[in-house]
Design goal:
It comes from Sinosporangium siamense. It holds the Pfam family HTH_OrfB_IS605. This is Transposase putative helix-turn-helix domain-containing protein. Residues 1-45 form the Transposase putative helix-turn-helix domain. With 55 residues, this protein is mainly alpha-helical. The protein has one domain (17-55). Helices cover 58% and strands 0% of the residues. It has one helix and no strands. The protein has one helix spanning 17-48.
């Protein structure tokens, strides 16, 4: 029997103001795309019982 050891590491990140602004903009775009995809998926399922995958 093979045993696996799982490890996790935590790192603190202190972005500069410029980096924080870029991260905020990037995550804002990601959130918008995710929400639009989820909206389309929900609409397809509720309206037509059609499944849409994320891949």
């Amino acid at each position: 029997m093979t045993r696996q050891v799982k490890r996790a590491f935590k790192y603190r990140f202190y972005p500069t103001d410029e980096q924080a602004a870029e991260l905020s903009r990037t995550f804002g775009c990601v959130r918008l795309v995710y929400n639009k995809a989820l909206e389309e998926r929900t609409r397809a399922w509720c309206g037509e019982r059609r499944r849409i995958s994320y891949v």
